């Protein structure tokens, strides 16, 4: 058995049976090993950002890691933006990066680079395998690290380690550490919530990660009912269970002024896997942190802790009722009148027609502003968001989500400018026959940058800036782009046409693309 075969076997033994890949010469022995193990599903991405985002989407929905195979340092570099998003989402992933044979590195061949240096900022664990070491043992350590954090474990596989023999005994490694929580923190938060209520001060539970799903979200709702606290969620979240009949945890808004107003009445914020609420950027004369300066911030649990267990313990500590409070369901938006398409009409149509159990992937950016509120009362669904702010995640994230949640319709709301970063993901959707409806919100501009210019105090935007923001010369033809990659599509510029197209798309297996021209 060579090292590549040992690696493949260790991944399969550890529960990884999907590998998103864009391999090159240094990875050919690993590709050959994968070829001999048909139980490993290998999915090609035509760009490395597609590979890393798809592995992220898979992990968010499947709840377990996939492998991502990349070619040397430059291949890793091409995938780093979406590894950043995945790390912010705390998505478990094992990233296998091929490297030159160890004795060839001294030749300083063109693709030679510092892979560790590239990997560390976007990885929670980095290991370089060496000749004479057990590849299987190194793979197990990486997998354990990816699950325990959870996060990104990067495994560097030199070519001679891949083709060389698995020389060391493949002994079983230690079991991954179980995620726990701090009982003292639970007790302290219970006291803080009780003190706030007695003093007539307002508290909020700021949720992130696993706290926004299933029993954990229900426990958070029970705690809020028992203590009078508001349920809140971070600005951008990896996965949220939303829709009719589910507890609502409104997200902190993106604009700084709106966000500070949203949090202004809170005297206490309890962090449940979340970070202290902060603005996405710094602006002249505006704060970095969004809660009032005198607001007390206490932490129930870190994002790496067992958030469901911590919330269950807190529910007991505050004597929360066993009954999950129903709360008022948000109404669906009215069916929009026929006429020219705008962002509000698109949001309303999607909210009204979203199938139960759908996975809604949102990278709609400026044109998607109405979508979050509109879908609050939609059929129960999961929402995946842009966690790290590095645009270009939506199309491949939706592909990975479809692989990780077979049988569920995936609806991807995608801004046109950021969609071009990883448009190749449409080809992967077509090749794998994935059930994804992609809605391109085509305002033909990096429209968010107009708002950012105003945010830093620029009143007039001239020709040079517009040349960097506008996408209309020539306009992108998304239907042609999609068809060129094997995905059928249609263009709509009025409400009636979009309503018909979206209803038909969600009723039939995908993939399918709708270009909604605003």
UniProtKB/TrEMBL annotation:
Domain Thiamine pyrophosphate enzyme N-terminal TPP-binding: 1-106
Example of a GO MF term: thiamine pyrophosphate binding
Keyword Lipid metabolism: no
GO biological process, one term: small molecule metabolic process
Taxonomic superkingdom: Bacteria
Keywords for this protein: Thiamine pyrophosphate
InterPro entries: THDP-binding, Thiamin_PyroP_enz_TPP-bd_dom, TPP_enz, TPP_enzyme_TPP-bd
Domain Thiamine pyrophosphate enzyme TPP-binding: 387-515
Similarity section: Belongs to the TPP enzyme family.
Name by which UniProt lists this protein: Acetolactate synthase-1/2/3 large subunit
Organism of this sequence: Oharaeibacter diazotrophicus
């Amino acid at each position: 058995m060579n090292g590549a075969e040992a690696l493949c076997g260790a991944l399969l033994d550890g529960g990884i049976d999907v590998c998103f890949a864009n391999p090159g010469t240094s990875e050919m022995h690993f590709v050959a090993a994968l070829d001999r193990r048909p139980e490993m599903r290998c999915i090609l991405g035509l760009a490395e950002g597609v590979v890393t985002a798809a592995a992220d989407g898979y992990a968010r929905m499947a709840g377990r890691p996939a492998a991502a195979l990349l070619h040397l340092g430059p291949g890793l570099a091409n995938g780093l933006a979406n590894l950043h998003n995945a790390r912010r989402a705390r998505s478990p992933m094992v990233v296998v990066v091929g490297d030159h044979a160890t004795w060839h590195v001294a030749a300083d061949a063109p693709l030679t680079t510092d892979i560790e240096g590239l990997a560390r900022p976007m990885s929670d664990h980095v290991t370089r395998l060496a000749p004479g070491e057990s590849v299987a043992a190194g793979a197990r350590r990486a997998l354990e690290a990816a699950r325990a954090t959870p996060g990104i474990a990067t495994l560097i596989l030199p070519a001679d380690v891949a083709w060389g023999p698995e020389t060391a005994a493949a002994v079983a490694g230690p079991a991954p550490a179980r995620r726990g929580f701090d009982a003292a923190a639970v007790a302290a938060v219970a006291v803080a919530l009780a003190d706030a209520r007695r003093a007539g001060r307002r508290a909020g539970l700021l949720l992130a990660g696993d706290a926004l799903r299933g029993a954990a979200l229900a426990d958070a709702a029970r705690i809020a009912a028992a203590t009078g606290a508001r349920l809140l969620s971070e600005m951008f979240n990896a996965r949220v269970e939303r829709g009719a009949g589910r507890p609502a945890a409104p997200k902190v808004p993106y604009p700084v002024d709106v966000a500070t107003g949203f949090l202004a009445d809170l005297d206490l914020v309890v962090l449940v896997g979340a970070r202290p609420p902060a603005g996405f950027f710094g602006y002249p004369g505006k704060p970095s942190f969004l809660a009032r300066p005198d607001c007390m911030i206490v932490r129930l649990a870190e994002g790496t802790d067992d958030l469901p267990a911590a919330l269950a313990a807190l529910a007991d500590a505050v004597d929360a009722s066993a009954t999950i409070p129903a709360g008022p369901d948000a109404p669906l938006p009215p069916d929009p009148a026929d006429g020219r398409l705008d962002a509000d009409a698109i949001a309303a149509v999607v909210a009204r027609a979203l199938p139960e159990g759908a996975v809604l992937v949102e990278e709609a950016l400026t044109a998607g502003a109405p979508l979050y509120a509109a879908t609050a009362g939609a059929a129960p669904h999961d929402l995946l968001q842009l966690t790290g702010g590095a645009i270009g995640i939506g199309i491949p994230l939706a592909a990975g989500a479809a692989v990780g949640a077979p049988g569920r319709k995936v609806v991807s709301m995608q801004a046109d400018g950021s969609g071009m970063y990883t448009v190749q993901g449409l080809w992967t959707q077509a090749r794998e026959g994935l059930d994804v409806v992609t809605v391109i919100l085509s305002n033909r501009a990096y429209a968010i940058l107009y708002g950012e210019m105003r945010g830093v105090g620029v009143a007039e935007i001239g020709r040079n800036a517009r040349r960097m923001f506008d996408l209309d010369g020539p306009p992108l033809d998304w239907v042609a782009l999609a068809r060129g990659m094997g995905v059928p599509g249609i263009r709509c510029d009025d409400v009636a046409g979009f309503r018909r197209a979206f209803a038909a798309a969600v009723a039939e297996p995908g993939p399918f693309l709708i270009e909604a021209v605003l």
